[in-house]
Automatic annotation (TrEMBL):
PROSITE patterns: ENGC_GTPASE (PS50936), G_CP (PS51721). The gene is rsgA. One of several proteins that assist in the late maturation steps of the functional core of the 30S ribosomal subunit. Helps release RbfA from mature subunits. May play a role in the assembly of ribosomal proteins into the subunit. Circularly permuted GTPase that catalyzes slow GTP hydrolysis, GTPase activity is stimulated by the 30S ribosomal subunit. Residues 71-211 form the EngC GTPase domain. Its EC number is 3.6.1.-. The lineage of its organism: Bacteria, Bacillati, Bacillota, Bacilli, Lactobacillales. Monomer. Associates with 30S ribosomal subunit, binds 16S rRNA. This is Small ribosomal subunit biogenesis GTPase RsgA. It comes from the Bacteria. It comes from Streptococcus loxodontisalivarius. It is found in: Cytoplasm. CDD domains: S1_YloQ_GTPase, YjeQ_EngC.
């Protein structure tokens, strides 16, 4: 039989096939191969009546996230709060870099807009991200329209109201919500497992919240590719290996100066580039010591 893993918990994998969910375990040979089934995997499995099934093989994956461990994702809703914690473009861009690198379509959702007295600044930010090509919403109905026929992951900094949003989208889930800790300025970790749920004509995943994000981009070239507006402008650069920092005839820097690329995004790009280069230098020094 064939189906998709919709939940993984305590060594069991729950596989959905033709509307029926089967409880399975992974064969021992997966461990020998260094393979682990993940939520979202398309698998071949055996399931005899009234007995535990076994996963026999895993199909090739379209994409994957390490944290949370989930695969074959169509899009990811990145939840950023307008306040408590304050909107953070640097953190948002880290999420976007990760998703671009993984070839997962991002949707930006802003929560807690009711805490703002004035939406002028938020509307200006929305305009910048929509100019790049991203869906940027803070209305629930707008978001629901984007979920149909998609496998959607919800991700965001701890404390942005992710579980609260998911409870509005799918009240039957009754996900546990955590209060904001005044001393830490972030929420407690409340999500325990990754699962796929049938919601609004698609499937959604609740995923653990976290307060920091390590994007899996290790070269300047990959970083440049993960910023769509920089990727597009870079075709006009004089040098193919242009890092868009100090090189002459850099089309990206010209676009920034002309206002075609948002200064905030470019500044975040420069910070991420510096982090990548520092990691590479540290790695080289470590290798030399050995």
């Amino acid at each position: 039989m064939q189906g998709r893993i919709i939940k993984a918990l305590a060594g069991f994998y729950y596989v959905q096939s033709q509307g029926v969910t089967y409880q399975t375990r992974a064969r021992g040979n997966f461990r020998k191969k260094g393979q682990t089934p993940y939520v979202g995997d398309w698998v071949e499995f055996s399931a005899e009546e009234q007995s535990e099934g076994y996963i026999l093989s895993i199909a090739e994956r379209q994409n994957s996230l390490v944290r949370p461990p989930i695969v074959n994702i169509d899009q990811a809703v990145v939840i950023m709060s307008a306040k408590e914690p304050d909107f953070n473009s640097n953190l948002l861009d880290r999420f976007l870099v990760l998703l671009e690198h993984k070839d997962i379509q991002p949707v930006i959702y802003i929560s807690k807009t009711d805490l703002l007295d004035d939406l002028t600044e938020l509307k200006a930010i929305r305009e910048q991200y929509e100019k790049i090509g991203y869906d940027f919403v803070y209305d629930l109905e707008e978001l629901l329209a984007l979920l149909s026929d998609k496998i959607t992951v919800f991700m965001g900094q701890t404390g942005v109201g992710k579980s609260t949003l998911l409870n509005k989208i799918a009240p039957d889930l009754q996900l546990e919500t955590g209060e904001i800790s005044d001393s830490l300025g972030r929420g407690r970790h409340t999500t325990r497992a990754v699962s796929l749920y049938d919601v609004h004509g698609g499937k959604i995943a609740d995923t653990p919240g976290f307060s920091s994000l390590d994007y899996e981009v290790s070269t300047p070239e990959d970083l440049s590719e993960a910023f769509p507006e920089i990727r597009k402008a870079s075709h006009g650069c004089k040098f193919r290996s242009c890092t868009h920092t100090h090189e002459p005839s850099c089309a990206v820097k010209e676009a920034v100066e002309a206002g075609a690329i948002w200064q905030v995004r470019y500044d975040n790009y420069l910070q991420f580039l510096s982090e990548i280069e520092n990691r590479r230098e540290t790695y080289k020094k470590t290798i030399k010591r050995k």
